[in-house]
Design goal:
heterodimer; A: 107 residues; mainly beta; four-stranded antiparallel β-sheet; 50% strand; globular; B: 126 residues; 11 strands
Chain lengths: 107, 126
């Protein structure tokens, strides 16, 4: 299985901050990397697919980059509704695997 | 707008079989380049992909669960289902169904979960 490691596991930030979350794969996954946002009691919501493609309806303050083994999710200016847990996911090969999550909290 | 809804017992006894159904509305389960997946999440923990099915009936399972998992599809009802046998307390989790979209670009395949059900909590306890 491909292991996905996110960092940090938790992060405190303020509204308006620029935030970056990192995801590293245990082997090259090309661009087969997705990012999801999950709020308490809700299903995950797709933000970014194929490493950098913004899902329809997702605000442009979210962006993704990377290729191979190292990827980042950037939120350019945090909004109150962005405080949530973020997961990366590789779909390069089955079994699909997720990172352990990054909880973004209000400072 | 596509919607998915999980249904099934919220409480299962140890050693029994967990059975869940996902009903798809707003679109045909048979149309398009979609797989239909199950994912679970223990309380306060991360996400685990269980497996998927294509409308042809072709399946892929997580090897960690493969010996206990069966995913099937009923296109006449626009539903797909999960069966997990010999459950233990470790199988207690929120179970999500999701639509997986796939496309090819520059000779590479890309897949992502674009629609999810709201999730259903299944507790394994006597």
């Amino acid at each position: 299985d491909i292991q996905m490691t996110q960092s940090p596991s938790s992060l405190s930030a303020s509204v308006g901050d620029r935030v970056t979350i990192t995801c590293r794969a245990s082997q090259s996954i090309s661009n087969s990397l997705n990012w999801y946002q999950q709020k308490p009691g809700k299903a995950p919501n797709l933000l970014i697919y194929a490493a950098f493609s913004l899902q329809s309806g997702v605000p442009s303050r979210f962006s993704g980059s990377g290729s191979g083994t190292d990827f980042t999710l950037t939120i350019s200016s945090l909004q109150p509704e962005d405080f949530a847990t973020y997961y990366c996911q590789q779909t390069y090969s089955t079994p699909y695997t997720f990172g352990q999550g990054t909880k973004l909290e209000i400072k | 707008q596509v919607q998915l809804q999980e249904s099934g017992p919220g409480l299962v006894k140890p050693s029994q079989t967990l059975s869940l159904t996902c009903t798809v509305s707003g679109g045909s389960i048979s149309s398009g380049s979609y797989y239909w997946s199950w994912i679970r999440q223990p309380a306060g923990k991360g996400l685990e992909w269980i497996g998927r099915i294509y409308t042809s009936g072709s399946t892929n399972y997580n090897p960690s669960l493969k010996s206990r998992v069966t995913i099937s599809v009923d296109t006449s009802k626009n539903q797909f289902s999960l069966k997990l046998s010999s459950v233990t307390a470790a199988d207690t989790a929120i179970y999500y169904c999701a639509r997986e979209y796939g496309y090819y670009y520059d000779s590479s395949g890309y897949y992502y979960f674009d629609y999810w059900g709201q999730g259903t909590l299944v507790t394994v306890s006597s």
